[in-house]
Design the sequence.
C-alpha cells in the first residue's frame, strides 16, 4: 500500500469545472468570511461610533489640556523661553503678550475658561482671570508689567507664572495625580495632597470592598435560591422565577425608595422590632444613610444577576451525578462538595463577575441610601461630570476605575479562567 | 388592488397628520426647567397666558435643569444646541457665562420696563449677578423643624449647632456652600466678615470644627425633596431646604412643621439663553412677556418664592388654591428677612473646587 502510494503521484482533486478543489474551497471560505464580516459590520460600526469613540474621547480628556495654549497663544511660546528657576518674573514682552491674549480672550469669551482650568490647581484663579480680563481691556500702552501687577498683585507673584508655565503644555498629568490624591506643589514636584484633601484613594478602596461584600452576599443568597429553582418541578419553579424577575422589571428608583421606607429610623423594620420587643424605642437601628443601607439595597437590586447564570448552569447538571456519588458511598456533604459544587463553578464565576462589575460602577442607589459612609467612587465621578464640570478629573477617575476592573478581570482569568464562565 | 387602496389610505392619513400638526402649532418652544411644583408654577403664571395670547406657539416643558450645566456644555461641544431657553440658578449662570456657553443679555433692550417706566436693569437691580442672566425669583435655603419633636423651638442659627438645646438629627445639604457660612455665624463670626474669615486657613478650620460638633447627628441631603420627606417621617427634627418646599409641607400637606428663617441664604433662579440656541426671536418675545412685573408677581400665587423685580412685590396676591395671603410667606418679606445672607458668588467661583474636595474629605474622615 505504502509503496504504491509513493509511486503514483496523487492527482490534485478538482471540482466539476476543473478548478482545483483547494482553490475553490478557499474561495468559498473567503466569500463566507466576507459575508459574515458584512453581517456584523453594522453592529461593529455602531459600537465603534456610539461606544468606543465617545469613550475614547472622554478618556482622552483626562490628559487633554489644549485650552491654555490655544487661548494664551502669544504668551505660552514666550513663556517657554523663560527660566522659572531664575527667581525673577518673566520679561516685559511676556506681560505684553498676556495683555494681548487677555483682550482677545475677552472678546471671544474664552479667557475665563483658562481661569477655571487654573482654578483646579489653585484657588483664586477664576477671579484673577475674570478681573484681569475686565481691566486689561482698557490698557493701551506699557509698561505692562507694572500695570498687571497693579491690577492684581498675583501677577507679581512668581508662583502664578510657574503654575501658568507648568499647565501650558497641551497634555497634563494633573488630573491623574489628583485622582490618586497627589498634586504638583508650588515648586512643581509631585507631592501628596494634604491630609484634609485626601479622598479618592479611600473611595476606590471602599468601592472595591463594598462591591466584594455585595458579590459575596449575592452569592450566599443566590446559590440556595437557584438550587431550589433548578430542582423544583417546572410549574412551581417558573412561578418562583417570576418572583425573582419581578423586582428586575420594577424601576430602580422605586425599589431604592421602598428600601428607604423599610430601613429608616421610623421605618417598618424598626417599628416591627420595637413591637415584638427586640429593641427599645431609644435604640432604633441605623440601617440607612450609611454603608449598611448601600449594601442591603444593592444586594437586592443585583441578586437576579447572580441567580440567572447560576440557575441556567444548575438546570443542566444531571441529577444522576449526585445520585451516583451517593450510591458510591459519599455523604451528602461530600457529594455536594466534590460533585455538585465543582459543576456549578462556571455559574458562580459568571454571576460573581457580573455582580461585581455592575456594583463597582453603581451610583444612583448609593447616592440615595449611602449617606456618607456608603457613597462610592462613581458618586464622585458623577459629581465631577454634572456638577463641578471638572470633566478632566472625572475622566481620570473613570480611567483609574476602568484600569482596576481590567486588572481584576485578568486576575479572575488567571484564577478561574474566562472560558470557564457560563452566562446561559 | 388591495395594495393601491392601502397606499391611498396611508397617504391620506399622512397628509391629515401633517395638516393637523401644522394647524395645531407652527412653533414648539422647549423650555427647560426644574420640574415638579416649580415648573407647574411657571406653566400657570407664564406659559398658559402666553400660549393663550399667541396660539401659534406651543410650549413644551423639559424638566432637565438639574443636569443642565453639563448638558449645555456638551451641546456646545458637539455644536448641536437644541435648547432655546433654560432655567438655572445664579452660580451656574455665572459659570456658563464665564465659559462663553450662554448669550450676554442687554436687559433694558429685551425686557419690559416696570409699570412706572423704571428700566428693567434698575428694577432687577442687584439681582442681575451676571450679564448673561435674567433672574425670575429669589428663593432661600432655610430651616424647617418638627413642632412636636422639639421641646423648645429653634429661633437662631446657633440652635442648629446646639445639640443640648435641641437634640436629634438634622438634615443639611451635602455641600460646603451655605453650611460653612452658617457654621461661622453660629460660632460668633460677624456675618459681614464671613467670607474674609473663610479666606484664611484658620477660618476654614474653624468652620469645619463647628460642623464637627454636630457631624454625627447630620443626615446629608442632595435632592430638595429629601428634607421635607425626612421631616414628615420624623427622621430628623430639623433640616435645611428650599423655602418653597417647606411652604408646601406646612400649608398644603399640613404637617406639624414650622419655619426658622434666621440667616436664610438667598439664591436666585432665572433664565439663560444657550449660545447658538434655536428660535431666538420667539424666545425673546416670550421672555419680554414672562419676566414683566405682573407675571413674576403671578408666579408667587402658585409657589412661595419672591419675585426678582422690585416692582412685582406690591402685586403679589393670594395663593391660587389655598387662598392665603402670599406676601408673608415670601423669603423677602421683612418679617422673615431680618437676617439674610446672599451668596458671594465670585468668592465661591474661586473656592468651590478646593472647598468641595475638603468638604468631601471631611465627610469621609
Sequence:
Amino acid at each position: 500500500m505504502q509503496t504504491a502510494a509513493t509511486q503514483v503521484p496523487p492527482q490534485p482533486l478538482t471540482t466539476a469545472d476543473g478548478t482545483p478543489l483547494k482553490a475553490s474551497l478557499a474561495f468559498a471560505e473567503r466569500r463566507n468570511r466576507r459575508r459574515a464580516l458584512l453581517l456584523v459590520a453594522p453592529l461593529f460600526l455602531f459600537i465603534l461610533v456610539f461606544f468606543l469613540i465617545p469613550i475614547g474621547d472622554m478618556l482622552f480628556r483626562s490628559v487633554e489640556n489644549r485650552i491654555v495654549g490655544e487661548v494664551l497663544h502669544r504668551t505660552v511660546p514666550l513663556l517657554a523661553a523663560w527660566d522659572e528657576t531664575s527667581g525673577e518674573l518673566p520679561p516685559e514682552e511676556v506681560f505684553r503678550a498676556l495683555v494681548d491674549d487677555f483682550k482677545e480672550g475677552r472678546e471671544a469669551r474664552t479667557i475665563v475658561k483658562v481661569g477655571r482650568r487654573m482654578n483646579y490647581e489653585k484657588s483664586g484663579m477664576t477671579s484673577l482671570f475674570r478681573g484681569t480680563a475686565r481691566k486689561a481691556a482698557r490698557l493701551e500702552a506699557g509698561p505692562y508689567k507694572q500695570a498687571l501687577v497693579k491690577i492684581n498683585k498675583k501677577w507679581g507673584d512668581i508662583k502664578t507664572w510657574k503654575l501658568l508655565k507648568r499647565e501650558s503644555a497641551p497634555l497634563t498629568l494633573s488630573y491623574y495625580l489628583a485622582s490618586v490624591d497627589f498634586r504638583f506643589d508650588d515648586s512643581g514636584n509631585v507631592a501628596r495632597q494634604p491630609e484634609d484633601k485626601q479622598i479618592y484613594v479611600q473611595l476606590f478602596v471602599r468601592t472595591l470592598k463594598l462591591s466584594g461584600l455585595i458579590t459575596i452576599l449575592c452569592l450566599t443568597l443566590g446559590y440556595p435560591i437557584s438550587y431550589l429553582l433548578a430542582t423544583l418541578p417546572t410549574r412551581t419553579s417558573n412561578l418562583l422565577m417570576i418572583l425573582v424577575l419581578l423586582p428586575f422589571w420594577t424601576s430602580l428608583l422605586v425599589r431604592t425608595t421602598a428600601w428607604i421606607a423599610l430601613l429608616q429610623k421610623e421605618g417598618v423594620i424598626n417599628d416591627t422590632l420595637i413591637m415584638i420587643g427586640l429593641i427599645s424605642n431609644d435604640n432604633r437601628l441605623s440601617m440607612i444613610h450609611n454603608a449598611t443601607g448601600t449594601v442591603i439595597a444593592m444586594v437586592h437590586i443585583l441578586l437576579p444577576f447572580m441567580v440567572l447564570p447560576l440557575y441556567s448552569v444548575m438546570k443542566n447538571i444531571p441529577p444522576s451525578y449526585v445520585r451516583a456519588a451517593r450510591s458510591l458511598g459519599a455523604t451528602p456533604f461530600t457529594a455536594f462538595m466534590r460533585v455538585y459544587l465543582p459543576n456549578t463553578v462556571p455559574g458562580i464565576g459568571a454571576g460573581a463577575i457580573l455582580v461585581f462589575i455592575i456594583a463597582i460602577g453603581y451610583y444612583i442607589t448609593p447616592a440615595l441610601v449611602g449617606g456618607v459612609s456608603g457613597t462610592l467612587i462613581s458618586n464622585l465621578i458623577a459629581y465631577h461630570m454634572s456638577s463641578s464640570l471638572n470633566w478632566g478629573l472625572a475622566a481620570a477617575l473613570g480611567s483609574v476605575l476602568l484600569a482596576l476592573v481590567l486588572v481584576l478581570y485578568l486576575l479572575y482569568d488567571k484564577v478561574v479562567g474566562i472560558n470557564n464562565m457560563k452566562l446561559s | 388592488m388591495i395594495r393601491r387602496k392601502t397606499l391611498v389610505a396611508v397617504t391620506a392619513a399622512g397628509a391629515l397628520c401633517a395638516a393637523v400638526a401644522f394647524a395645531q402649532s407652527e412653533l414648539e418652544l422647549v423650555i427647560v426647567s426644574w420640574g415638579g411644583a416649580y415648573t407647574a408654577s411657571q406653566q400657570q403664571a407664564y406659559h398658559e397666558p402666553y400660549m393663550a395670547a399667541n396660539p401659534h406657539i406651543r410650549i413644551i416643558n423639559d424638566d432637565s435643569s438639574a443636569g443642565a450645566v453639563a448638558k449645555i456644555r456638551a451641546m456646545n461641544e458637539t455644536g448641536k444646541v437644541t435648547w432655546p431657553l433654560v432655567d438655572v440658578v445664579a452660580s451656574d449662570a455665572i459659570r456658563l457665562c464665564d465659559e462663553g456657553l450662554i448669550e450676554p443679555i442687554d436687559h433694558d433692550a429685551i425686557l419690559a420696563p416696570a409699570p412706572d417706566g423704571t428700566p428693567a436693569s434698575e428694577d432687577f437691580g442687584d439681582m442681575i449677578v451676571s450679564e448673561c442672566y435674567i433672574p425670575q425669583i429669589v428663593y432661600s435655603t432655610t430651616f424647617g423643624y418638627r413642632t412636636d419633636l422639639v421641646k423648645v423651638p429653634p429661633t437662631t442659627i446657633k440652635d442648629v449647632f446646639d445639640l443640648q438645646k435641641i437634640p436629634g438629627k438634622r438634615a443639611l445639604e451635602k455641600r460646603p456652600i451655605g453650611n460653612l457660612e452658617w457654621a461661622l455665624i453660629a460660632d460668633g463670626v460677624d456675618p459681614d466678615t464671613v467670607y474674609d474669615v473663610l479666606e484664611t486657613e484658620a477660618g476654614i478650620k474653624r468652620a469645619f470644627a463647628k460642623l464637627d460638633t454636630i457631624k454625627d447627628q447630620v443626615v446629608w441631603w442632595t435632592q430638595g425633596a429629601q428634607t421635607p420627606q425626612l421631616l414628615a417621617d420624623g427622621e430628623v427634627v430639623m433640616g435645611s431646604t428650599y423655602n418653597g418646599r417647606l411652604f408646601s409641607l406646612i400649608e398644603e400637606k399640613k404637617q406639624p412643621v414650622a419655619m426658622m428663617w434666621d440667616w436664610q441664604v438667598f439664591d436666585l433662579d432665572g433664565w439663560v439663553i444657550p449660545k447658538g440656541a434655536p428660535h431666538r426671536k420667539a424666545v425673546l418675545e416670550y421672555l419680554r412677556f414672562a419676566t414683566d412685573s405682573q407675571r413674576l408677581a403671578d408666579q408667587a400665587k402658585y409657589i412661595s418664592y419672591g419675585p426678582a423685580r422690585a416692582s412685582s412685590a406690591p402685586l403679589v396676591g393670594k395663593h391660587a388654591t389655598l387662598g392665603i395671603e402670599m406676601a408673608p410667606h415670601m423669603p423677602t418679606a421683612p418679617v422673615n428677612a431680618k437676617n439674610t445672607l446672599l451668596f458671594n458668588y465670585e468668592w465661591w467661583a474661586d473656592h468651590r473646587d478646593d472647598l468641595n474636595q475638603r468638604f468631601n474629605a471631611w465627610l469621609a474622615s
The first strand of chain B starts at residue 27 and ends at 32. The mean pLDDT of chain B is 90. DSSP finds 15 helices and ten strands in chain B.
